[in-house]
Each structure stands twice: as structure tokens, then as C-alpha cells.
Amino acid sequence: MLTLFSFLFQFGDAFAFLVIASMGLAIIFGMMGVINLAHGEFIMCGAYTTVSLAQLGLPLPLAILGGSLVAGLIGMVLERTIIRHLYHRPLDSIVATWGLSMIATQGVLIALGSTMQGVGTPLGSFTVGGFSYSTYRVVLMGIAVLLLVGLYLVFYHTRAGVIARATIQLPRMARATGVDTGKVYTLTFGLGAALAGLAGGLYAPTMTLVPTMGATFMVESFVTVVIGGGDIFLGAAPAAAILAVIRSGMTAWQGQLFGQIGLLITVIIVIRLLPGGLSGWILGGRK
């Protein structure tokens, strides 16, 4: 029972990390088709803002929301000024977002130094069978599930969500019906950036803050979205669950390095067998 609980805790922790880290990228890359190599820097922005606000005396939950809001606002400004000129130009978007990531990383390094003092992991820990587990990690698992449910309700059960999906899939038809597609693109990109900032804020208490911290999230985020395909719910969520099993199992067997190797091998196999990802396979099966 103790071994099973330990595995389930590791699975839940890995699943929460993959879901929270990849949701913003699933919207920007999976739905909008923008290859955003600055995803990690939006995460870093959320983390740094969260810690800065917490150090000023703001309660941690409000600091996390503040970090998400700042990342979302920056994302909307960048969409208006740079990204909107690069839709349907994937190679140009790669170069532009890579440049933005370099500017952000080096700018933070120059302005704030190589590290930033964190706030510490809240809520303490609990013990099962002589082993200690972080209570905050359990909270993150619950937040990951709430994020999935919340985004599903927004995109499938609200008028704004339907308009966003219609605009991204058929922009000319949406424009013909009077939809301000430019505004929809800006808000959707801002939502993706805000979710990335939220990921940084949520995980800021659990890690050392450095300007390159976004790289910690990048590989897992892209692997999850690529395996999942374009649909957030039919793809990214099941992909996160599958990858969480592989990562936690490989990590328990041979350590953290083998867990990362397992993720990369999985994405190679899925890309070879299912070019459209899990969501493409599921939708194709329905047809």
C-alpha cells in the first residue's frame, strides 16, 4: 500500500506539472498554431512577479494571480506588436519568439542578477508510512484538475469560447459575421500567456528562481502538446496522464534522467505513429 501511494503521489505530481505547464502552450501552439519559443519566459515572468509581490507583503494566492495577470498583459502587447504579423508564417514565428526569449532571459539576468530569493513552499507536509509528502503538491494536483474543467467550460459552454474557436478555425467566416477577429486573437494569446504565468506563479515556491528557469518547463510542455495534438481536452489532458505514468514509473525505476528519456522516446514514437497526436487519432476514429 505504501508503494502504491508513493507511485500515485508521484503520478499526480507529474500530471499536475504537465497540465499546468502546458495549458498556455496548448492554446497558443495547439489552437492558434503559433510556435511560441518564449513560453518558458512567460512562465519565468509569472514566477518572478509572484515572488516580488509576495515579498512586498501580498498574500501568496493574490501574488500568483498578479503574476498571471502581468504575463497575460505582456502577452497581449506582444501579440499586438509582433505576433499578429507572423500568423501562418511558422518559421518567422519561431525566430521572433526565440529572439523574445533571449531578450527576456538576458534582460532579467542583467536587471535582477543570476538568482532571486524565493518564498518557500507553503502548507508544510504530511507523513504516510514514515515518508514525508508536500501538502502544496496535493493542492497543485487539485488546481490542475480545476484548470482543465474551467477551460473546458470556457471554450465549450460560453459564447466567448465558441467565438474564439470559430475565429481560430475559420477566421474569414467569423470576420464576415461581424466578429472582431483581431481582438479575439489578442485575448486568446493573452489567455495562453496568462496561463503560462500562472504556471510560473504556482511553481515559484517549489524551485530556485533563475532567469533560465523557463527551460525546466519547455521540454515537458512541448512534449505534452505535440503528443496531445491540437485539441486541449481530447489531446493534452490524456497526453499528460500517459506521460505522467511513464515519467513517474521511469523515475521510480532508474531516477530523474530516465524519466526525461522516457518522455522523449514517447514523443518520437507518437509522432511516428500518430502525426496528428492523440486528439487527431481520437477525432479520426469518431469519423
- Strand segment tally: 2
Radius of gyration (Å) = 19 Å
| Share of helical residues | over 70%
Shape category: globular
Low-pLDDT ranges: none
SSE order? HHHHEEHHHHHHHH
Mean pLDDT: 87
Short summary:
The protein is mainly α and 287 residues long. The chain contains twelve helices and two strands, in the order ααααββαααααααα. It has one domain (4-276).
Give an overview of the whole structure.
The chain has 287 residues and is an all-alpha fold. The chain has one domain. It is 77% helix and 3% strand. It has 12 helices and 2 strands, in the order ααααββαααααααα. The protein has a two-stranded antiparallel ribbon. A hairpin with a 2-residue loop joins β1 and β2.
Any chance you could write out the topology, listing elements then pairs?
Elements: H1 2-31, H2 39-55, H3 60-81, H4 90-112, E1 125-128, E2 131-134, H5 135-157, H6 159-169, H7 171-176, H8 181-203, H9 214-228, H10 232-254, H11 256-273, H12 277-286
Antiparallel strand pairs: 1-2
Helix pairs in contact: 1-5, 1-8, 1-9, 1-10, 2-3, 2-8, 2-9, 3-8, 5-6, 6-8, 9-10, 9-11, 9-12, 10-11, 10-12
Feature tags:
globular, 287 residues, 2 strands, mainly alpha
